């Protein structure tokens, strides 16, 4: 493999890891639902143009609810309520662990010793990072986001895996917007600010549109397994970007818990036949 083939996955890591502190900034000016709508509209339209169309239907709409609408709400709320956006990123990336668990029951895939150790380590790390004495609602919501992402991934594998991924994700994004619109009054706030609007649009361009284009190019060039393994750098680098952009320094407990989560996910991922991964 050439160095050039690794460029798309490096793009994935950069745009998705830097998105978490940018989301934190945007949420200073607008509610999570408003941010999600802007992000999905911008990203969905770019993917629509890039993919030259969309794929739609009932199965696709259910997939959009699981993979985008519900997930996006949990992601934004998790970042908003977490003390450090990188902690939210780490807990959301427990997704492969839950994919392994769900695959065992749904697809009867065997769970080897390495997977079992990975699941135990990752869940233990999530508990530590979330705070075992004082419940952190943002961390819990982020963990729920990881579970929702896993459910959406299982659904994608079962019903949508043969669809054109760019057109499918364009439909996911755009069809989620009308689902989110009735939720606008929930914790609504919006401060007219050029900075807030620009940051929200940047998130839509980078995390929602470019992130998916880079991701699927990575899967094509490197294969799903290698691309997924390298993507585990996202939550790790999100701590770096959170410090650079926001000045947020992780606590020792968050660092220990997050390391255990990533190590456990890596162990689990080594034995998973990956079929989907995203921000």
Description:
It contains 12 helices and no strands. By secondary structure, it is mainly alpha-helical. It has one domain.
Report a brief summary of the structure.
This protein is mostly helical. Helix content is 76%, strand content 0%. It comes from Sulfurisphaera tokodaii.
Helix tally equals 12
Number of DSSP-assigned strands: 0
Low-confidence stretches: 271-279
Radius of gyration from the alpha-carbon trace, in angstroms: 18 Å
Q: Overall pLDDT, averaged?
A: 85
Strand content: under 5%
Q: Compute the number of structural domains.
A: 1
First and last CA, distance: 26 Å
Shape: globular
SSE string, helix = H, strand = E? HHHHHHHHHHHH
Main beta-sheet strand count, sense and barrel state: none
Helix content: over 70%
By secondary-structure content and strand pairing, the structural class works out as mainly alpha
Tell me the layout of helices and strands.
Layout: H1 7-26, H2 32-51, H3 58-81, H4 85-92, H5 95-106, H6 113-130, H7 137-160, H8 165-180, H9 194-222, H10 224-231, H11 233-246, H12 252-269
Keywords:
disordered C terminus; DMT family transporter; transmembrane; globular; single chain; EamA_dom; mainly alpha; 12 helices; 279 residues
């Amino acid at each position: 493999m050439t160095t050039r083939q690794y460029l798309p996955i490096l793009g994935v890591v950069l745009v998705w890891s830097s998105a978490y502190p940018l989301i934190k900034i945007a949420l200073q000016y607008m509610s999570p639902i408003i941010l999600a709508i802007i992000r999905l509209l911008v990203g969905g339209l770019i993917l629509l143009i890039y993919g030259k169309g969309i794929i739609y239907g009932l199965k696709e709409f259910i997939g959009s609810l699981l993979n985008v609408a519900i997930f996006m709400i949990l992601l934004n709320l998790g970042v908003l309520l977490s003390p450090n956006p990188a902690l939210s990123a780490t807990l959301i990336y427990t997704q492969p662990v839950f994919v392994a668990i769900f695959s065992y029951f749904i697809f009867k895939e065997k769970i080897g010793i390495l997977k079992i150790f990975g699941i135990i380590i990752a869940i233990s790390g999530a508990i530590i990072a979330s705070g075992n004495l004082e419940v952190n609602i943002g961390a819990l919501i982020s963990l729920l986001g990881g579970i929702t992402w896993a459910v959406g991934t299982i659904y994608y594998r079962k019903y949508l895996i043969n669809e054109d991924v760019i057109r499918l994700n364009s439909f996911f994004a755009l069809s989620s917007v009308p689902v989110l619109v009735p939720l606008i009054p929930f914790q609504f706030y919006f401060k007219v600010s050029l900075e807030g609007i620009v940051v929200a649009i940047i998130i839509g361009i980078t995390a929602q549109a470019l992130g998916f284009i880079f991701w699927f190019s990575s899967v094509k060039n490197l294969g799903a397994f290698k691309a997924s393994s390298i993507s585990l750098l996202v939550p790790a680098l999100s701590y770096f970007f959170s410090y650079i952009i926001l000045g947020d320094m992780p606590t020792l407990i968050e660092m220990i818990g997050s390391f255990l989560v990533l190590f456990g996910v890596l162990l689990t991922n080594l034995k998973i036949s990956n079929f989907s991964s995203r921000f």
